[in-house]
Amino acid sequence: MGQVHPPFAFSAAVRVEAAHINAAAAPFCAVIGAGPAGLFAAEVLARAGARVVIYEHKPSPARKFLMAGRGGLNITHSENLDRFVSRYGAAAKRLAPFVRAFPPQALRDFCAELGEATFIGSSGRVFPASFKASPLLRGWLTRLGKLGVTFALRHSFLGFAQDGALRLRGPDGHEFSRAAGAVVLALGGASWPKLGSEGGWVGLLKAAGIEVTPLSAANSGALVRWSPIFRADFEGQPIKTVLLRHGEATARGDMVVTAKGLEGGPVYALSSRLREAAKTDGATTLLVDLRPDTSQVCLARKLSRRPPKQSHATFLRRAGFSKAEIGLLREAQPEGLPRDAEALATLIKNAPLKVSGVAGLERAISTAGGVAFDEVDADLMLRKMPGVFVAGEMLDYDAPTGGYLLQAAFATGRAAGRGAARYLGLLDAAGQAGLSPSHLPNSRAPEASNKYSV
C-alpha cells in the first residue's frame, strides 16, 4: 500500500527512489505524468485493484492545474452535451465516446466527492465554489494516497527499453529500467513548459513509429505590431465587450492589450484559425467590433451629431469610448479617422487589425497536435505498442477555453485507465471487475466512486 500524502507537503509526498524499487515491488501499472489525466487514470486503475506508481519529473504534481486555478479554475461547461462535444472541432467524433462516458455532470459529481461543490456561472461555465484548484487537488491527493497510489517525483521518462520496460531517470541522475504490466502516458502537450509539459515525448514516440501531428500553440494571444505610442500608452489595458470576427467565426468577450498584441477569451477562441491563416498567408486580418450591441445604423445616427469643430478624441470620449478604444481605431486606420459618420461607424464595427501569428507555446494555454487518433484503439492503447495507453493533451485535439480542455483531460484519463485495467485483466469487456479480491495485486476489492469512475 502507498502512503497517505500530507496535503500539499509535496516535499514529504511519497518519493520512490530507483534503489528502493526491486523487481518484486515493481509497479503493476505505471502512469507517466501527474496532471489531471494521469491522476484520474491512476485513480481508476487503483479502484480496479492495480498497484499504481505515478512518475512525475517535476518536484510536485499537477502544476499546470494549479496555475489554471489562479484564474478561477473553469473546470467544465454546462451547455447541451451535443453542443459541448462539437467544440472539439475535427476531433469531436473521436473524443465523443470518452466525453459521453464521463460527461460534465460526472466531473461535477467527482468534485463534490472531494468536498468541492461547483456552480454554473452566468456564461454557462462551471467553477468550484472556492474558485481555486488547490482545495480540489489537496483532497484528490489524499484520496489517491488512501487508494495506495504512489508518487515517484523528479523521475524523468526516457522511453522504452528493447524488452518493453520503462526507461527512467531518478532524482539522483541515475538511469534505470522498470517493467510494468501496463503504462499510461499522460505527459501533456508543450504549452507553459516551465510547469512540466515540455513535449519531449514527441521524438520518443516518433522513433517508435507512432504518428504525431506537430505540436503548436492553441488558445494563445494574437500577435499585432502596435505603433510604439499605442504600445507605450495602452499595454495592459482592457477593452471590454468586443466581438471579434475572423472569416465566419466570431467570439465575444473582453480582451487585453499586450506588448505584442491581444489576449483574452475571444482572442483565444479564434487563435487556432488565426494561427493556421497566418501560417498559410504570412498574416491575416482580425475584425474588431467595439460596439456589438449597437447596430451600425444606430451608431452612425449617434455619430452624426458631432459638433463641426470638435476633435475626434474629444467627440469619441464624450460618446463613451475609452482612450484605449480610440487608440485601437487609430491603429486600425493609421491614415486618420474619418469625419463622415457612416464611415466612422463602419470602422467602429469592423476595425481591421493585421495579425502576424499567435504567441508561442511558452505562453499558450494549450497545445494543438499530438498522437494521431488512428494510432490508438477504442481504449486509447497504442496499436503499435500493446499495453501502452495515451491520455490527455498528448492526443491530437484542439479545444477552446471554457472547461473543454479539462473535461477532455479527465474523460481520456478515465478511458485510458479503464483500458489499462482491461488489458491487465482487472476489468472484463463490460467494465466489471475481472479478478476476485484475493487475486488482486494489493489484495483488496475494487472500490466504487460515482457511477462513472471505474
TrEMBL record:
Keyword Ion transport among record annotations: no
Region (Disordered): 435-454
Domain RsdA/BaiN/AoA(So)-like insert: residue ranges: 217-366
Keyword annotations from UniProtKB, A to Z: FAD, Flavoprotein
TM helices/strands, residue ranges: none
Entry-linked Gene3D superfamilies: FAD/NAD(P)-binding domain, HI0933 insert domain-like, Translation factors
Tree of life domain: Bacteria
Residue span, RsdA/BaiN/AoA(So)-like Rossmann fold-like domain: 30-418
Pfam family, one: HI0933_like_1st
Cofactor: FAD
InterPro entries: BaiN-like (IPR004792), BaiN-like_dom_sf (IPR023166), FAD/NAD-bd_sf (IPR036188), Flavoprotein_PP4765 (IPR022460), RsdA/BaiN/AoA(So)-like_dom (IPR055178), RsdA/BaiN/AoA(So)_Rossmann (IPR057661)
The keyword DNA damage belongs to this UniProt entry's keyword annotation: no
NCBIfam families listed in its UniProt record: aminoacetone oxidase family FAD-binding enzyme, flavo_PP4765
Protein name: NAD(FAD)-utilizing dehydrogenase
Species in which this protein is naturally found: Methylocystis iwaonis
